[in-house]
Amino acid sequence: MRTPLNIQPMQKHLLYILFLLCLSNTPAWSQIFFAPEQVIAQSETLNPMRVVAADLDGDGFPDVLVASSIDSKISLYKNDGFGNFGAQQIISTLSSGVNAAYAADLDGDGDLDVLSASYNDNKIAWFENEGGGNFGPIQTISTNANGARAVYAYDFDGDGDLDVLSASHNDNKIAWYQNDGSGNFGTQQVITSAAFGAHAAFASDLDNDGDLDVISASFYDNKIAWYQNDGLGNFGIQQVISTDITGAWSVFAADLDGDDDSDVIAASGAGNLIVWYENNGSGIFGLQQIITTEANLARSVFAVDLDGDDDIDVLSASHFENRVAWYENDGSGNFGLQQIISNTALGANCVFADDLDGDGDMDVLTTTTGNHKIAWYENIPFVEAEPTPPIAAFTTLPALSPPADTLFICSGQSVQFFNQSENANAFLWDFDNGTTTNIANPTYTYAQAGTYWVQLVAYHPLPISPDTAALAIVVYPALAPNISCPTTVCLGTSADYTTDADCDTYEWQVSGGNITAGQGTPNITVFWNTPPMGTVSLTAGCGEAYCNLPSVASVPIISPDATISGLTYFCINEVLSYSAPYFGGANYLWSIVPSYSGTILSGQGSPIVVVQWNNIAATLHVNYQHQILECSGEASLMVYPKPAFNIAPPDAVCLNGQSVVSVEVPFPMFWTVTGGVIVSGQNSDAVTIQWNNAGTASVSATPIDPNIFCNSVAQAAVSVLPFPQTPDIVGQTIVCPLQTYSYTVAPVQGNTNYVWTVSGGSLIAGQNSPNVSVQWDESGVYSLSVIGQSLVAPFCPFEPASFSPISLTNSPFAISGNPLVCPQSQYTYLITPTLSDAAYTWDISPPDAGLIVQGQGTPEVQVLWQNPSSFATLSAVYCNETAQLLIDIGSIPQPVISQPDSLCIGSIALLQVADVNSGVSYLSYAWQNVVNELLSTNPTLEVSEEGGYSVLVSNANGCTAQAAHVVYGHTAPVAQILSTTETICVEFPVDLPLVAINGTNYVFQWLLNDTLIEEVGTPYYTHFADTTLQEFHYNVLVTDTTNTCTILSDQFQIVQMSCPLGPGEPTDPTDPPLPPPPFICPPVDGYMVDFILSVDGTNCNTISIDQLSSGDFTSYVIYWGDGFFEPFTGTTSSHTYSPYITNVYMITLVGYFTHPVTGNTCLVSDFEHHSVPLVARFDLAEACLGDEWEFQDRSYYLPSTAINSWVWDFGDGTPPFEGGQTETHLYTEAGTYTPTLTISNGPCAVSAMQTLTIEPYPDAGFTTSGGTCAGSNTLFTPNDFTYSSYLWDFGDGATSEVKSPSFSFPTAGTYTVSLQVSNEQGCSSPLVSQDVVIEEAPEAANITASNTLFCEGENALLSAPNGGASYQWSNGQTSPQITVGNSGLYWVNVMLANGCHYTTPPVAIEVIPAPNAHINPSLPLVHICTGDSLTLQVAGNLGYAYQWSPGNNSTNQLIVSTSGTWQVTVTDNLTGCTASDSIETQVQNPSPAPVINIADAVICEGETTDIAISSFTDPNHQYIWVNGMNGTGITVATSGNYWAYSMDQYGCVSDTSNSVTLNVSPFPDISPFPTGCYAVCHGEILSLPANSAQSFQWYYNGSPIFGATGNEFVPQAVGDYWVQMTNAGNCFSTTDVLQLSFLSDCFPPLPVALIDFYGKVLPNANHLQWTTASETNNAYFTLQASTNGQDFTNISQIPAAGNSSTPRQYEYNDEHPHPITYYRLQQTDFDGTARQAGNVITLTRPNETGIFGITHIVPIPTNGIVNITFTTVNLHAVTLRLYDLTGRQVLTQTEQPKASVHSSVLDLSNLPNGMYLFTLNDGETVVSGKVVKN
Length: 1830
Fold this sequence. Notes:
By secondary structure, this protein is mainly β. Helix content is 1%, strand content 52%. It is built from 1 helix and 164 strands. Residues 1-30 and 1061-1079 have low confidence and may be disordered.
């Protein structure tokens, strides 16, 4: 891409025309041209002697360095990469008469320093580049180089640094100066003092031994010599290459012939030669080989590949000719002609080449001392022109009458077809009746009436599509009158024409001549005077016998001059066709001047020729001569090259970026863009485009004037790259002023540079890398941003990433954490916002309020608070900022559950909790039972079951504690009413006693109908009966006074009712009721039921009965009175009553019998009462192991009795004993026991038992861990975590109820720590104690770091202080030593074996970012084709050093061509940091060359044939043919050698296939054969060009003539002749018919060889002049004149030379001319034989005033001076004005003629080659002409 010149549109147009003219001066065929001069500076440097291009400011673009001798300046012009140069930067003016400057890295710091050689002060010096193209003061190397002319830098001694080479003119020295690598140079070491007038020196390895030898050019001895280096800087004797180059001025070395050694090029400063000497590889040189002799005073020579064909071309600057030129190399050291870049480089002195505009080709840089100018010329490659397609066109005779599109003719009428096609060399006519021909201009006669569609197909010489033109012809049935035999005629001759039609009238019409006789008759005579084509037309009145359309015949008229038709502007390599007028029977000889400007491809000998043009202006010339008629002529056409234009877009652009897209030539274009918008420049040669869419965009340009360029449009694709996203910046957010922090972004794959911008701080290190170190200032406003910048074109920036750290001065940090804490509890506190890598200092005030357990120095700490019911301050200090948090250290709650200790079974108790300290309240409650079931969160709990209960309470500080309580269950008293009946008969009212069950310590309250009757403590109450019918409801409320348990009995109902007597019913209400009898039986004697009761000892619960009944009873039933009854059989039965019920039971025995009178079943009964007086039971109050258990009698009994004995058995093996109602007992071991109570009232005894379990003591054991030193944290861990309470005593007055507390002992000493635990049953363990030894706290030691400042990719070993048992580093690692590779602060918490720990002071690690070493291309594996190379590149930086491995390359680029793994190590010379990257390459071997075959090796024009690959084809490969086509086969129609190659998926190509040759055989050209009617002399030879066909066959009257198979034939008889001409491939053409007759008055040949015959108009006469080459027997010439071209009279007879073998010139002035005069010349022998000599010429006279005419313009073309001769009458002053083809006036001059014939001298030396127009103006008349400079 280049930035276009700021040239206005008109200037651009003029530059373009100049460019065309420059092209016309280029005499060799090249594929490039150079744009006009672009001035870098003029007159800023006086006498600029030397110029070089080098990247002096480190931006990757070549800048321009100039040494100028008059002002002693060394100047620098910086390049922006597009060929735009900045203002002059003066490096020094202290080198007097400086002749040379050079750029090289002399001090090894990665940038280019400057060397100078100054003539006046004999000094060699250097200037250190201090970075960015800024230079230090002069440092003198030597002042012993007398007349220093040249200076260079090379490594002569093989030590890796650059030494200095000089050439000095006045002391004849070539010398060198050894460099120590730092820019310190040794003394002058003379290589030779025998280079007389040493003017130049150069170095190259001439003998291929791996070191650099020296070459010199010396002016006075005309010598080129070399000096062999032994590799250590020791040089051998002078070895002369040549002494025949006059004034040897400049020398260079390069491989010119492609044999891998250095040849030598030299320039002749006092002559005109550029020469070279071939090296055989060993330093032996051949003879001088001249490149050019047209470089007058050649001052500079340079060698470089200018045209991109991989060989070395040569540049020269020649001082005298003001010329910069180049010479194209064919690769073997054969050079083309001089190609001029500029002819206006005034005093051209130096030439250099480099890619100045970044477009990949070599531009040319020059200095000129004539105008003190530094300039450059842009190298622009030609774009191969698109072939101009053929255009088929033709006209006819008879002609169409517009606007008709159909031709109407008569039967038998001939139609002449005139081919007007363009860009075609072969033709095919189809006459639509089966007849075809390939004759360019055929004549065809339709014999049959009808409509015919005539088609002409025009073929291009190249294989592009042909074009077709067509015409409809309607042929009428009637015949047309014939016109006899029209043929070609000579200008100024007469011919007769006749018709054999017998008609009434004949109307003849002629164009191109005059009818001189016969009008109105069948025969006319025509004098032909207007070339090149005439016509004869006949309209005859023949009635119906003939067609009424006119008959027309064409008559070609040969004139001395003619016009060539065809394009005058061509494209490089373009193939175009040109045509001269068609003269049947004429031979055409075409030529091109100069001959190398083009190639005639076909058509030689014919009127149509096909030419392929090169790239320079030329003259196309043709000579034509009729082989029968004695007339000939010539024509010329100047043709000029025009360029194809090409777009120069960027290969890739960045999204939303703008770029300038231009064409290579400055000319207005219409631009079209997809994927972007045109910002500016539409309708100019360059546009600015903004690219809006990522992907592939396109741009196209169309010329505003489509005729100027070869191609109509140029297109290019542009890759629009999206902005990648720069990864987020990672680093510290909250920062401290004046401290350094590290920031990083994740590296992006590929070759990327990172540009960091800091606001509010300084970038300490890491610019251009992904990691930087930043020191923030005290402003408090900070920002950091980074933009990734791709280092691969187009160098797209990434989307920026930004980061805004916050200063602690603007955003102070705070401590977050719980301010309400509990003693002996650990809490976490955190700095917010968090600085992860900051070292905070934490402190507690007062110091004994707590302990920082962990995290000192970090943003997060663990604090153990110690002093209850106090306040403390927690503070953190960092970066001179302090944050504080007020801590409220609460107290541990001391909850106690109050009331009750016991619970009456079946009732509800309320548990309440309160603190031992009055006024203390709780925030939360959690009640649980022994299975940890949450029962309530209220302050109280209602319970209905005995067991253990606990509550967890918390206060406002979140401190928690737990209290437990055991609720014991007490047995309730028994409440039951006993009575003998529940019914009272009002007929017999009896009071009813009521009795309640009694028990020890019972009191009773009786209720009637729910109303308290009286408060009595007795179990007795009497219901007083009366006669009222009603119900009475009694209850008794019983209270056990020992446990206050109270219970209400069930309701006892008494019903007073009426009781009438009936049979079988009791008569006494007090008698027990009997079971109802089945029948009422009258009394009968003899039946009696009776039984007696008995008990078993004291067991009153079990009774037995013995039956004593009498009578014949059938069965018995016994009712036991407790609800149970059963049949009674036998005499004895027993029953056991419930041991838990005391009552009086009525036992009834019923006997059943059959009544002896009634027969009914009757019954008799008896009953007895039995009391169960006692029920034993007891309560026990649970206790813990070691405590006494209390046992309380809870037995009950009938009131009628009393307990008088209590026997206790506790079940642990102690003997039973009789005791009291309440006893205690101590169980000594844990276990399960069954205590028993036996009570007795004397006769009866009863027992009760319970099971109890005594748990072991709770385990109060504990362990310690953690610190055992003062100030450290010791953790106490109980053995069991399931107990309800824990009480710790730390032996220093501090206690804790936390299950597992951490405690910090403030001072060293031995402390007795004890623990007592309690379970949920309220059982406490014995106190368990341990002695804890606390040692003095250790002092914090420092971390040992192997390195605190190191390069990215390296690391540091951090070692913790010795003596630690475990370690906790700030980065989470736990080993004694860690390896770190990132910047930051690191510290470690050291835990000692005794549990003590401390945190070390932090150590700061700073990582210096590594240089960017990413290799481009960014691929792990790259395939290289065999024979190719790949350039590996890393980002260039002047401060970096590079080392590739394998290899010894020390630049940022490595060119590789083999398989391998390549690694680059990049070193930052400032920091010493290195980085490496690697890439693998694999050489891809080419696939085998394909094999091809051709279907037909020879075809005719217009045919095609197929060429295909016959060998195996791979579908993954492309097959590319020599003509650019792709595929496994092609169809071709053009002669040439064809071959193909394959290209695999990696772009590797195979060897080329075998070559096949296609010969496209042209159809022979028949135009030289004379057709029509001709008369010749007997014996005259008819001849065709020998090369017009491969074989010939002559025909006579329709039959082949035996043996007539050559190109010449002598007819022997009158008749019709024609020829069949055949070329290869049996491609044949047949001529039309020649109707031949013989002349009767044939003369021998003219004995005069006439060269020319011409005339010119003088003011008062016509001047005639002719020249002969030789004369034989020539007596005189007769000059004849005519006013009508037919009737000639003799006007003068001029004596001749007789016999002469040398040229002779004759002239005559006709002083009586007519306005139009025709002249011809007759030659007469000594014997009187007269013959016409030459052609007829015509002279036309202008008006007789002013300038009559221009008579001579010689020479044409001219190389500088031209003479214009004109005639004038009035002798007025004449002004001559010269214009170029754009209309720009380039020269004017005024002259005063002294005579009527005047010559004006015009000097074109300083004008570019090309065509110019001029005018002559005498004030009255203006005449014009043209001149050509070539």
